[in-house]
Amino acid sequence: MIRRRILFVWLCCCVVGTLGAQNDRVPGSILVQLFPGAQIAQVCERLHTETGVQVANRRTLSERLRIYALQFDEKNIDAEKMLQTCITDPDIQIAQFEHWIKSRSIIPDDPYFDLQWNMLNTGADGGVEDADIDADLAWDISVGGTTADGDVIVAAICGEGANFGHEDLDYFKNTGEIPLNGIDDDGNGYIDDYDGWNSVDNNGIIPVRQHGTHVAGIMGAIGDNGVGVAGVNWHLKIMPVLNDFIESEVVESYAYVFALREQYDLSNGAEGAFIVVTNSSFGVDFGNPNDYPLWCAMYDSLGSLGILSVGATANFNANIDVVQDMPTACPSDYLITVTNTDNTDMLYAAAYGATTIDLGAPGRNIYSTYTPGNAYSYLTGTSMSAPHVAGTVALMFAAGCEKFIEDYKFDPPGMSLLLKQYILDGVDFNASLNGITVSEGRLNTFNAVNTLVNTGYCHLGVETENNELPALYVYPNPVTDVLCVFVPNGESETFHLAVFSLAGEKVKELHNISGDRLQKGISVGDLASGMYILKLTSDTNTAYFSAPFIEQ
Question: Which of 253, 276, 513, 534 stands 20 to 30 A from 309 (CA)?
């Protein structure tokens, strides 16, 4: 399903031109990503020499990823000419205009509502019974918190402010940083980022905002604490990363998330944050991804670290396959795009797309945390839909077994895509989304978590028919160019071995293999690095198990 979606989205991007997005271009601003080793000062000087126009590095968006916002005076040169000069520069990998963005509009509704139909829909108040995400069933498996390896799970809410004083929310704190001392204490490139990052003011001061407070509560309001509401993940650390209405701030926000997760990985958890998902509820109506290559590429960059991103699509009735949208038409595998459903399980006042919009999630009249103080309120929009999915991703990390976390840390991109596939495969079929979304359904958090834990990855290795097949294991770990399978007392048996990628594609198959040959080794040097699922079948039994492969 994932691969098919990528192909279709890319074709759409190539065929459909820009619709209305040029009006959103920021005058005199071009975003660039340099090739490794290139220096921004030299690039600016060369652009000046070639065009006769002064070009300055207005802002460094990410030193690690070599992304910069360049400024020039459009009165002195045609903008298209400047862009083409950047595109052809030998040190510039990607160049694009910068664009204004806008928040996904939300519709405040009644100020008080004490039932979360989105989590458990009983059919009250005109709703349809079970038109919900089955959160109550998912909580029987896990209520969130840490991974099986002890990692504190963090979700980044991009584009949002916060309400640090709300009694029902638990925000991440960068304990390696001393707040407001003007020093980058942890050496991550960001000064005073104790509470998160403000890409608008280039500091760690996060303003209070109602919208971000509401989104945070849907994802991770503290559950079972006797106050307020319950989020999808009851014990989630929330990281606010503020950006407003300009594209460079968006890129910088995602770059900050990248930096914190990279810092965590490189320090073996001593610094940074174990961020597993980002959520965004902003965008550009009719924005064509061809005009926003850096923004779209950020999802792949985050995905390389194992971070999935969730995006809310537009709040109007339109086919994104045709009209395009940013970011929900971006072709990245690591982006999950979400539209809005109501308490009757119908698509509600939101966009769709058979190849661009992945699934629906509750978004109408959602009751969650709010401001000022410890307030709660109703809001409506795809902004409310997306955090249900982001919270589900975080909950899956809390529910995952030790084997899953171990393999995720070996192959973060591959294992994160497995979680995405479980989410899309686990939706409840929805007639109003049939044929107009990738999954044709509405989020079911229980199905996603249950597949990971009880029927999918964490269930692998348990004999599926009886317990007579002896304990198996694969060696070396990780597998290099030769795969060996130890089958106790099975040297004389005959087996069938099939190897699958995490996407479910069969990549290798061998028939009539003796147990003796399995233990001596099978050549797998033709397979790329990553996690694989192995299915071993004898005359009497079948067993599944996973194994990491690494190229030599």
Answer: 534
- CA 490 to each of CA 256, 271, 382, 474, 476: distance values in angstroms, whole numbers, following the listed order: 52, 47, 55, 14, 19
Report the alpha-carbon distance of residue 518 to residue 495 in Å, rounded: 9
Return d(Cα 396, Cα 450) in angstroms, integer.
9
DSSP 77-103: S-HHHHHHHHHH-TTEEEEEEEEB-EE
Cis peptide before 111 (omega within 30 of 0): no
Q: Are the beta carbons of 212 and 171 closer than 8 angstroms?
A: no
User: Any idea which residue has 């097949």 for tokens?
Assistant: 469
The alpha helices in 241-319, defined as continuous H runs, are 247-266, 293-304
Residues 306-335: what's their mean pLDDT? 97
- Give percent of the chain with pLDDT exceeding 70: 90
Task: Tell me how crowded residue 526 is: count the other CB atoms within 10 A of its CB.
Answer: 9
Q: How far apart are CA 17 and CA 323, in angstroms?
A: 9
pLDDT tens digits, residue range 186-204? Answer: 999 999 999 999 999 999 9
The SS3 call for residue 413 is helix
CA distances from 113 to 80, 277, 326, 366, 376 (A): 52, 28, 32, 9, 8
Tokens of 350: 């939101």
Closest CA to 94 of 266, 295, 324: 295
Give the integer Cα–Cα distance in Å for 510 and 498. 6
Q: How much is the pTM? A: 0.84
Q: Which amino acid is at 372?
A: P
Of 392, 379, 337, 325, nearest in space to 215 by CA: 379
42 burial type by CB count under 10 A (0-12 exposed, 13-18 middle, 19+ buried)? exposed
Q: What is the pLDDT of residue 513?
A: 87
Residue 500 binned pLDDT confidence (cut-offs 50, 70, 90): confident
CA atoms of 436 and 73, how far apart (whole Å): 44
Structure tokens at 537: 């079948």
Say how far apart CA 314 and CA 383 lie, in whole Å.
9
Q: How far, in Å, CA of 257 to CA of 261, rounded? A: 6
Give kind and range of the element (H or E) at residue 47: helix 40-51
pLDDT per residue as tens digits for the range 135-182:
989 989 999 999 999 999 999 999 999 999 999 999 999 999 999 999
Strand partners, 338: 312, 359
The closest alpha carbon to 246, from 66, 20, 31, 79, belongs to 31
Interatomic CA distance for residues 218 and 209, integer angstroms: 15
How confident is the model at residue 122, as a pLDDT?
87
Residues 6+ apart with CB under 8 A from 139: 223, 234
For residues 488 and 312, give the distance between their C-alpha atoms in angstroms, rounded to a whole number: 51
Distance CA 420, CA 2 (A): 9
The per-residue DSSP string of 431-459 comes to GGGTTTSSS-EE--HHHHHHIIIIISGGG
- Greater model confidence, 464 or 101: 101
C-alpha 125/C-alpha 179 separation (Å) is 46
Task: Supply 120's token pair.
Answer: 């458990």
194: left (phi over 0), alpha (psi -120 to 50) or beta: alpha
**SS3 for 343?**
coil
